[in-house]
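Today's session is about reading a structure prediction critically. Students often jump straight to the picture, but the first step is always the sequence itself: look for stretches that repeat, for charged clusters, for runs of hydrophobic residues. Only then move on to the predicted structure, which in these notes is written as discrete structure tokens rather than atom positions. Here is the chain we will use throughout the hour.
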Amino acid sequence: MRTHRFGLAPLAATIILIAGALLALPASAQQQGPAPQQGQQSPPPKAYKPLAIKLPQPVADPSFVAFRKQVGDLAQKKDRAGLAKLVAANFFLVVGEKDAADKKKPGIDNLAKALNLDSKDGQGWQVLAEYAQEPTAESDPDHKGVMCAPADPTFDENAAEQLAKDTQTDPGDWGYPVKDGVEVHSGGKPNSPVIDKLGLYLVRVYPDESPAAAVQGGDFVRIVLPSGKLGYVASDQLLPLGNEQLCYVKEGNAWKIAGFISTQ
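Below is the predicted structure for this chain, in token form.
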């Protein structure tokens, strides 16, 4: 599924950027820099050595698959009462380094706050539905037995930091393809000629702030190929690192929504 893509509205608190995407490395290697100031120029594109990644794999537990379907069905119905039964009593809401959940309130209230379920446009429920479709998850080192989704790919984090240094970029200027062989176009349109294909490696995002890019509505994101050439990739084919995550825990034989980790 992975609809939390470049150029699209976020999964909860808008982790995708307006002009290209500020990403963050996983917590163990995170050196997140400030967002570029208006008018600030990105470092010029230059060649780089591809840094291989291993894509996250779906959680194979059939009960987890069934649980996600249940959550998705409730999200489609906007069934708050039904959802409340699936939220852990000790639901956590991590913002920065702190748990911002109000422990005096039911877990569903804290989940509603995290995903903005009470918004009149229903976007919070759509966000929940998107999370429910996410098949990957990774262990949360700070909460025993908890898994959080979506999972990030695995790669050499020290090499990623060096890559950012060598290219004079922030670690947040990098994303990764959803699969091997993603097509790279010469322009930001579907009918633009295909000039290359991406392998499974980190890809530098190079924001295109031209009027033409604004008109295209974010369907494509400009990137720098390892050769140093510029190209365009469909925005749903390139993912950010360090997503906000919805977390789950198995209590006995039943899954619960355990918490939410925000990037804000």
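Discussion point for the tutorial: The longest helix spans residues 62-77.
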